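Newbie here. four chains, one complex. Structure please?
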Amino acid sequence: MKDPVIKVTKFTLKRLPHYYRFVSTCLDKGLQFISSEEIAKGVQINAVQIRRDLMMFEAIGTPGVGYSVEELHSKLGEVLGLKNVNEAVIIGIGRLGRAIIDYPGFERYGLKIVGLFDSDPGVIATKINGKEIFAVDELEHIVGRLHIKIGIITVPDEWAQSVADTLIKSGVKAIWNFAPVDIRVPEDVVVRNEDLAAGLATLCHLFAGKSSDGFH
Amino acid sequence: MKDPVIKVTKFTLKRLPHYYRFVSTCLDKGLQFISSEEIAKGVQINAVQIRRDLMMFEAIGTPGVGYSVEELHSKLGEVLGLKNVNEAVIIGIGRLGRAIIDYPGFERYGLKIVGLFDSDPGVIATKINGKEIFAVDELEHIVGRLHIKIGIITVPDEWAQSVADTLIKSGVKAIWNFAPVDIRVPEDVVVRNEDLAAGLATLCHLFAGKSSDGFH
DNA sequence: TAGATTGTTAATCGATTAACAATC
DNA sequence: TAGATTGTTAATCGATTAACAATC
């Protein structure tokens, strides 16, 4: 019998990490149950929306009582694919790469960075947090042998696509790209282009809008 | 006469930075005109969608010819609020903070980080790229005096909200938060919570979905 | 003119919200 | 039972797509 793949819309999916984070803190506090209203306050999302989103697990809540914190936490983690530790490699050990390597939020999500790569002879063979940095030339070899499925790209724009291609050739199925270019991948590979500058542009626009509105 | 505030939906806004980036490269290549089809290929978004999005500037394109690269570039930059340089401060000079300080995509968007702050006596008064790091205690004073409107938060979770409060009190109107918590702000302040771990969670889910699908 | 491509209207699709019956 | 809160259905809202007339 195969696992029923839980279908979630793109939009629901975006909200899940927030629920997960909030529910995690509730768990830490030792709470037993929470209502959709309480979650709503915690994550600033409409309570109806939340109930709707949580409907993907059938009948996980108890009317009149709320949701079991523990169960909800566990289910959310499962849907988000955080149950098993995911091993990843990171390519590009500049400042951004280093920041990612010890970004605090990741452990909770079970991400384990097991391979560090760079092309700069000056950093190759040095260590970060006890992990050695390898030459990019070895990327294909190592990724293939360790059966790594996730690659994190923190190299300059002009290298990003070619690094991605190498990763894919080596069997990587999920790419998290921080270079400010849109990476092309085949159908069976998922990619997330995390363009920080785009986030900035969005913020600037909202800001510009607000400030001109202010004068009317 | 006041500037007509161009209304853009949340979704259009998310696509604009991509257009902007692509059009920038066309400009660099010296192209005169591009069609919505060409942009579509470049950014992997439906051409109709693009035309629809670009309708916010009235009649900027020429039927049968396309859009003037130069004009489009300039208009997009304007809408995104990138015309004037935006000065910002950053609080939290850890690895992430340092990565942000020299992330390559930002200059193009006119972001200028003019103040660096941290609470660690070990880094206060040291310099990065020639810019001195100040004590957080001076944040309110300096931000207020320089009339800074944008604050970037790269401190640990537990400090994020309080730093945000200080920023707001000092007159900051836009906050870009990298700490993995949702920051609360008053109505007249815009905030963008850039939770990297949430991005990871999204990627993991997509990945998990793909891999189980693969077996059917 | 003929060909290309825009701007716009109408049709479709999907997400959010409101209302409420079912359940503890 | 009465009160609370879920799960679900129906109504609304907004975004995307398709079709095409207008324009260069």
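Moderator note: The beta strands of chain B are 33-34, 61-62, 66-68, 86-91, 111-118, 127-128, 131-135, 150-153, 174-177, 190-193. The longest strand of chain B covers residues 111-118. Thread marked as resolved.
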